[in-house]
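#lab-general

N.A. 3:47 PM
ok so I finally got the sequence cleaned up, no stray characters, all 258 residues accounted for. can someone with queue access submit it? mine expired

B.Y. 3:52 PM
send it over

N.A. 3:53 PM
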Amino acid sequence: MHTPLCRHASGEPVDYARRALEVGLTEIGFSDHSPMARDNFDDWRMRNDQLDEYVEKVCKAQREFPQLTIRLALEVDYLPGHEDWIRDLAARHPWDYFIGSVHYVSDDWAVDSPYKLSEWKRRDTFEVWSVYFDRLTMAAETGLFEIIGHADLPKKFGHRPTRDCSPLYEKFLTAAKQHNCAIELNTAGLRKDCREIYPSREILQLAFAKGVPITFASDAHAPEEVGMNFAEAIQLAREVGYTECCRFDQRRRNTAKF
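B.Y. 4:20 PM
back already:
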């Protein structure tokens, strides 16, 4: 879940927490887009000097809603060569978890950006997915993340390869299993052009077969999105075979039935 500090979300953490209680949740986590080493890297994340402010906003929600377990986390972009920066972020606050996500398949193209849709016309779709999953695999291999986010993000606008991607998925999920990474069932995909939870049933089936654990995420950018479509996500997970999901406390994982 996000905050206005990322410049593309609305509502304060206290508003998200209030909504979480309204929809019957007992535990939530905030994982806004982390700063990059350069504040001008892009315009959809908090600045470096806002990280403490972000933590205080989450702490305020924790104080105002003691009946709700509220976790402090970050969604951290993975780019090759940025590992030291991620370690630096990890040392700054007592985080409960890091979600590692890949948005960029090159230094200046985030595949989910609505402002860069023309890039898809210049690139082969399978090539884009290959680069994306290579980077997702590298993210899992770093051991820097508890969760890997929206594992098939390139489908957001409906761009799907005609070639078989299962070898890409297999390699990524093997790395996730080996390095103790969970993957999330992210319901935001249902609100995008792809109209499908991230990741697809195919990927989730492979994940279950490999023993990769899962979490549930609404990827809320507004209070009304908190917990949105969780019933569908739970149904999908159960159909694939999952009966447990992960929770994190101080970067330690435990499991809960659902």
